[in-house]
User: What shape does this take?
Amino acid sequence: MWCALARIVILVYMTDSNRESLIHDWNMPYPKVQAEVQFDDETLRDGLQSPSVTDPDLDKKIELVHLMDELGIHTVDVGLPGAGARAREHITQLVRETATLSITPNVACRTVISDIEPVLDIVQETGVAIEVCAFIGSSPIRQYAENWNFDDMLKLSRDAIEFCTQHDLPSMFVTEDTSRANPDQVSALYTTAIEAGAQRLCVCDTCGHSTPSGARAVVGFVKDLVDRLGASVGIDWHGHRDRGLGLINTLAALDAGATRLHATALGVGERTGNTEMDLLLVNLRLNGVINNDLTRLGEYCRKAHEAIRMPFPVNYPVFGPDAFETGTGVHASAVVKALRKNDTWLANRVYSGVPADLFGLEQKIMVGPMSGKSNVLWFLEKRGIEPTDEAVQNILRLAKETPRLLTEEEVLGAAAL
Assistant: This one.
């Protein structure tokens, strides 16, 4: 009696009071973020520039914008007004839809007044404020390829931002390819934009050139410039993942002073894509930087996948079908033991660095060639089937002969033999 009571006391202590001690965290504490972190979702603009996607119907875009809003994403790029009549029609309807939401719209325009003028018509028609993201290439290599004169670039930038300011359009000045641009020219472009009334500056790793140290350096440079000018402007980071560094670069940019981070669902975008919005939110939630309710983040990924018809890798972190599924006996045994304790916290951490339940997901135990008896027992019990010795042996025999995980039908069929 006393031993049983002692065991109960120990279990309560470990699960309710001190469970965090079960994981020794070698990670350094995440740097304290000085300002509120904002997110700009580029799925419906840069995301649709991917060579492999389909531009969704309007109803699919509206559905995605609502999910973005529920996830606590602050702004959404709803497209390029200069891309044609269909683009402008979709932009107008999406802007109108945001009137009832917390998320606010922005659009991408070249630093050309004729690109920005249609935004005034959409604002007048919808009654909704629209942020203009006015962009111009900034790197020497781009200037050389385009035969641009830098003085002309400064004039275009000033004229575009002043036009926004004069017409009460919130503006963000975007320097494409900032991560390969000359510091003196970056300084001149941003100073010109600030003087013309830009409310935000966007630092871009357009070609996915940066490493984390480069992202910190260029954002730190821009932050120092803003501080020296005494300007009250936000700093955005827009990163691509040509080297596979999109996510880590975005986290580095945040450390260096970026206050709004751009990303897309599943990392879709031009060439190999952008920072993954879903994984960015996951990491900032796990690092304690944000406290957003992300239980519908998996749905956001699935809806984006369906809308743009982009393949969804089965091993995609957190939200891919394989993320919380195992057929390996040792792994499954540990998870099953935790589940048998009715301890969801333990089950979601004993063999996972990401707690599934935090994102509306759960652990899945399957049966395959590396499975043990515990896999089969749990699989059958979860489906209300009595796990007889004969059924278990039949399933394990089939599993050992099959070079992959068994389907549910195959497991149940073997159990019925």
